[in-house]
Amino acid sequence: MTSPVDLPEMLHYMAPFVAFQDLLACARVSRQWHRFFTPYIWYSIVVPEEWSNDAAFPPLSVLEKNAHFIRSLTLKASKGLSSFFRHCTGLKTLVVFGEHVAKPHPDLWDELTDLIRHNASIEWIIFGFSLSNAPSTAFLKALPEACPNLRRYESSQGRYDDPEQVEALMQAITRLSQVSSRYEYFVNVPTVKRWTFPHLCELTLKDARGLGTQTQVDLVCQCPNIRLLKWTVCRETFFPVQEFCARIPAACPRLCQLQMDGCGLPDPDDIGRILDSLARLEQLMLCGSSITRRTFRSLGRHFQTLQLLDVVDCFYVKSWMVQQILENCENLTKLTSSVLLMRDIVAGKDWAAVGLKYLQVNMVPTKSFAVSIEEQWMTFEQLSRLTQLQHLATGPRSWTPREGLLYRMECGVDQLRTLTKLKVLIMGKSWQRMSKEDLAWMTGHLENLTKVEGIFHPDWDQHLKLSDGFRECGIEVQVIERPDLLYSGDLMDDGEDDFAEYEAEEEDEEDEDYEEEEGEEGDDQDEDHYADPQQQQQYQQHYSQVDELAEDNDVPGDIVTGAGVHAGTMGTEANADPGPRAVDAEHTPRVLQ
């Protein structure tokens, strides 16, 4: 009698969830399992730089024998692999980066052109250069015909200095739906108004040097069906706010997802003007920008349609703003922001964003070392309304002696029994005061919890015991080093002075915002505003503040490296490594090294 696990339907269901080493073991169980699991073992290959001298990497003969199983191929080297390329006939994803493209051997682009001609099924191509070269003109010209299923093209740090090369690139893009260009250099670019990109729905332009802002506006306007725009201009350039507002909403009526940072936006109200120009907004991701009262009013126009909002690294985001977002954005599924004071939760209305799946906000009590049970209890009460939550982060991202939301029974943590879908819980980088009873409740009632992170108790030995308790229940605990704050003199500070200073600073900022609004209400900025030398100096000062934030958050998806797939954050680019970036974790291929 055939075992149920031998049924093809069962094997097809299990295989995608099996780790690579376990796949190897499964392939040795029987001939049937060997035939079934071999394609999964070879689904994705990463060719290391010194592949011929790497004992852990398969020899060329084995590569050629199994090449037809490969669906995702990542090349950190290519020399000596031309015969292997000819056996690859079923690729869906091609990733090329490393020293061999920075300093290519003479036949590289001829070999890659031949490779794509044998793989009409390719859907996604990723290149990573080092500002020294880019795909050859012959390769780009071959793309449309050789890869009719190609929908996604990503390139970083390429240098396009041949007009014919740029012409071939633009022609290839006309058939694509997703295009990403990051830190690239263009020379002698002809007008882009000659092309139309009717299929393009996602466009990323980051630090496109050699492309003037007017040319970039023209490019975006030639994408009538674009929905997602990720756009950052070079630091020396002003963002074309007026051109954006005047042209892009009319030319791109479906644009509803926007990602930007503060580069080139010297006026803190510029983001508000951009938001006012858009008819509908579903996703907004900002980094290093200012959220003034005027900008927040403009954001309020989109509360009913907003589904994703990321302002965690923006300036002047007030607690009351976060509370109003939670009260009014009924369709919100993801929110990342900075601070939400528990006093605003207590004084506010019930949260309407009950469909949230991802929430990252530092929830701060009014008094640091005199915890208000009422504040804690009502905060947990509001969290209990978010029954769809899968990822919850409620603490600070940097170490602080200030207590935050305490996951204790006496504070109301048992109200979270409604969060049956919660998988990840991040308590932040401040200490908890959990007990064994709190641990028992969490592991017994949060059945889908797979990962926790935090300092569970000020006593480090107690923290380690609680960590072991989570692990015994099959829950991953993020390993952290013992922070100095746990045994420094900072713990002797009652925290009251710090909070009073925080409140005074917040009130001063609100007064400044109000004064700015009174002086500028209803005034539009003319072009001379951006040409003013004093305004240019303000811009340089502003950018010096946001530059670090923009660089640190330039990783919007997963980074495919030789070691495997590593989770990233907002944006997609590692500055030190010109390697490829895969922005969709769900579709990032399994990596075999």
Largest sheet properties:
17 strands, parallel
CATH topology of the domain at 318-485: Leucine-rich repeat, LRR (right-handed beta-alpha superhelix)
CATH homologous group name of the domain at 318-485: Ribonuclease Inhibitor
Count of β-strands: 22
Q: Identify the overall geometry.
A: globular
Average pLDDT works out at: 82
Number of separate helices: 21
CA(first)-CA(last) distance: 38 Å
- Helix/strand/pairing category: alpha/beta
Q: Approximately what portion of the residues adopt beta-strand conformation?
A: 15-25%
Q: How is this fold's topology laid out?
A:
Blueprint: H1 8-14, H2 20-26, H3 31-41, E1 44-47, H4 60-66, E2 72-75, H5 82-87, E3 93-97, H6 99-102, H7 108-117, E4 124-128, H8 137-146, E5 152-156, E6 159-160, H9 163-173, E7 178-182, E8 185-186, E9 202-206, H10 213-221, E10 228-232, H11 241-251, E11 257-261, H12 270-277, E12 283-290, H13 293-300, E13 308-315, H14 319-328, E14 334-341, H15 342-347, E15 358-364, H16 373-383, E16 391-393, E17 424-431, H17 436-445, E18 451-455, H18 460-472, E19 476-477, H19 496-520, H20 527-531, H21 533-552, E20 558-561, E21 564-566, E22 581-582
Parallel strand pairs: 1-2, 2-3, 3-4, 4-5, 5-7, 6-8, 7-9, 9-10, 10-11, 11-12, 12-13, 13-14, 14-15, 15-16, 16-17, 17-18, 18-19
Antiparallel strand pairs: 20-21, 20-22
Description:
There is one protein chain. Strand 9 (202-206), helix 10 and strand 10 (228-232) form a beta-alpha-beta unit. This protein has 593 residues and is α/β, with parallel strands linked by helices. It has 21 helices and 22 strands. 35% of the residues lie in helices and 18% in strands. Helix 2 runs antiparallel to helix 3, helix 10 runs parallel beside helix 11 (241-251) and helix 12 runs parallel beside helix 13. The two termini are 38 Å apart.
